[in-house]
Amino acid sequence: MRNCFIEAKLTSFRRINVMIYSQAKDTDSHSFYLIKNNEISRELQIDKRVTSGGVIIYNLELGEDFEFGEHYELNLPSFSPVPIDVSEAPEFPDFDERFAYSGDDLGAIYSKSETRFNVWAPISLAVQLKLYNADGAGYVLYDMTRTERGVYRVSVKGDLKGRRYHYIVNNYSITKETNDPYGKGVSLNSEHSVVVDTSIIEKRKKIPLKSELHSISEHIIYETHVRDFTAHKGSNVSSKGTYAGFIEEGRVTEGAHPAGLDYLKWLEVTTIQLQPVLDYCTVDETNIENTYNWGYDPISFFALEGSLSTDPARPELRLKELRDLVDTLHKSDLRVTLDVVFNHVYDYLTFDEEKIVPNYFFRRKNNLYISEYSGCGNDFNSSHLMARKLIVDSLTYLVKVFDVDGFRFDLMGLIDNETVSEAYKACKAIKEDIIFYGEGWDMDGNNREEMTSIGNCYKLPDFAFFNDTYRDIVKGPTYESELYRRGYAGGDAAYNDGLIYAMFGSYPKFMKTSQSLNFVECHDNHTLFDKLSRSNEGEDEETLLKRVMLANSIVDVSFGVAFFHMGQEIGQSKMGLGNTYNIPRINYLDYSLVDERWEMVVYFKLMNHIRRRSKIFSHTDSDEIKSHFDIDTSHYPLVIYSSTDKEVTEGIGKEVVIIFNSDNSSYPLELGDYYKFYIYNGGRLVTEEQARSLIVPPISFTVMYR
Prior knowledge:
This protein has 706 residues and is an alpha+beta fold. The protein contains 17 helices and 33 strands.
């Protein structure tokens, strides 16, 4: 057994620390020589020597900058040469200043005559391209050339479309084999990067939308998952659970109601949000039926998830199918936003960028441990310039190639606001009406001022944030221990004033109403129906579903961005469970329930129609919006809005009256003039009846006009 160990670590661009562990008593100082490209370069000056308990630590001065890409070792006479550990270099204060790269050519740039491979590996001694033969048997290694700012490059002649490849990265003492962090194609289960031609898809003619939306607050967002939307057995969608199945037309439920794409068109929403479609880890693409995940376990910021494709073994098909999905939705006048996860990755140790440039891409605490505010074991360090670039390049790629209309950011409060602002500016240069919104929870107390959290919304006036205050006022608290507590829709009239605050944009929580994304259900946590089942325990299903319809109505007539989760319109349940990210089938849109509760679907469509026809929702100033309405809370527990303003009433009548009642009792109300009913009795559409007084039904949303 050896009784002496020597380690050498680069601790600044001009300093090396050497630690000698020895069981023998040491009384002599050592001499150290720098070996460069297998030749002794010079003796190094000892700046400091410390001895403690059999460990000797030397601080050595290099005298000039360490040149990455050159072969260095440390020599002590009578010892074998010692490799120099450079893994801490990305933590050096001026690392970004020296090495951050702004070019737009990272990844595999394909053409029929050659493919250019470019990878940012600034601390590497050497990088090789491992290119597999077309038949998959064997491979060829190509040495890559180090160029400006640590980008390694090689060009390979010939048509390489469909060829698998890896990078082999030598970071002096550590060599690792990785996929391409900028790779647009991957093989089954992401075992290899694959050369794909994105230009064919990018050059497709963009499909213009029929309608114009002038503000993010005019969007009615409907959150879906590609697999969950069509996987249920209760429809005749043929390619269930896939990009292709998502856009099959003419599909119906067993009860002959619209299914799939036709269902989305029928709802009169404006915008379809897809849960993650960028490549994620925990679905086995060779065994899709028996594995499931929402996709918040990312392994790539560019490649697409294969389990959502009709043929996961064909990497380029995934790209075509997603673009087909977007184009078809655009033809149907539906916008598409993507749910993106940049705050963490599945496993930072296996993340390709971490293997290539260790200790750069993830945020660390003062004790050097990876910070874990995401709750997923690692926090992506978006404030580092090349991490920021990775995010910005990913988003602009998705807009350029797939023509998407915006992004929902998972745990946006863990991404610095400079990164998100830069990404928004870059995407807006490509698509003027791009929208950004996300979860702005304040999660990183150490970097609070720089994060994209609700508390910093004044720095991000064009972004929308999921409004948790709105959610809790309308449906009640969402924590497991507080599910028993009611919100306004659950019948707690103590929230009457809170409802007014929530519906008019939650000022001063937000600068503009368009920053408030109003929701009472999303994929996370319990569904609205399940929450109400706990807070209103003892009420029958019919009563609970009335409460669901009331809550949905409130969202549709609130100022800000209207957001609904798939199945919310029919009061779908997840069997009382909250976090169902990896439970198959329970998240599927239940088409048998669509048949059973079709009247709720009709009502949901009607509410969306009312929202879309009113110009008032394009306004963003809370005080200015309130000036269009008279608000009456004197008929407790009713909440009444009325307006004679054309911005509100155009196409309906001279005056509109909206009445909320979340109580289990009915209440008489005198109107003073004759009004026609538009919606009455908890959602029933009535167009002929009129009255100057009425009995406001229990748990109801009533619209009347004069």
